[in-house]
Task: structure prediction
Amino acid sequence: MKKLTVILALSLLSLSASALAGKSLAHQMWQLAYPSAQLPVTIPRDSKTAFEQYNENGEISVVTFAKNKQKANDNESKIAIDADYGNGYLLLRTIRTVSSEEDILSSNEIVAFKDSKGDYTIFNSDVSQMKQHGGQCTLFPSGKSFTSNKPLSSTFPNISLQTFAPDVAIKSAQAPLHYLAVNFPRQGTTVTATAKPLIYLLSEPQQKNALLVYGDLGLALVGDSNVWVDLLVDWVKQISDRQSVSALLTGEAMNSDDERALTRILQTHVEGFPESDKTEMEQVQMLRQQHLPMVLQWLDKVYQVEKNLRYRSVKLAWDKKQGRFHITEKIPASQPPASLYDYMTRLPDLGTEYVCYDEHQGYYEY
Result:
């Protein structure tokens, strides 16, 4: 199983030190994952299973542990526990069935770092709102959050897009073009932070002029831009003339075979929406003339930043004495694609991770 990617978000849920004082590390880690739920006074360190219980409002109210219980009740969700409290690591995987065809999946990865005073800085990545439908899984952009028991500004260095592209004066954009993905280790204290592109067209964020965000919490998709990107990628992989990409971007006439290929893809897409008040051809024309060029312009902005990155990742080391991370190494970016066409043929590999659940493989990335 590949390691889940932790995505930092600008909004932090901070628990006061007094709220955690005197509690075991295991209890502190669980409390960060479930700040509003009732927890046992003592967390069973050897337990592999727990259950979320919901109140009448659908909120998680209680977390219980049971060695012999394997199946969740109607108002519960089962939690699979992978704990190594001695190394400050806890991975929780939850499946909540909402219908016969739909599951809401979530994963909490909680890691703790100890300072020279014996205090812990704890991080919780909550990758939630993962939807399984007919074997397909999607990670919704609104379903990522990152919480800590301390302010992020006191534990992380100041990282911006210029950290990765120091020689380039990148102009501001309506919404961030990249996010910072952070992989925490199961053992050890060295962390890798990577600048990754946000390939889906996003609405204007609460914090303006932030070209790189610590995650995309608070950002929302414009329309079905995730679907539109997939349609574009399918088309790009079929075209015979790479100049057709530039033609779609600028509104110029393109290769006739490529135009017909695009029409076929769009017709196949809109066939699944018979309830629309528009005819099939009207839907195709709207996608062709409005939505796809808009998304392609967004991808071009992302690509213009991508090709100017000098570094892709930075290594962060935990300073036990100061109780914070410092940048110790910058990892060079690979050679960028030569054109927007080349960049798109590599999508969605460069985009936001998708996390799926399979009963045989467990959680995995693709």
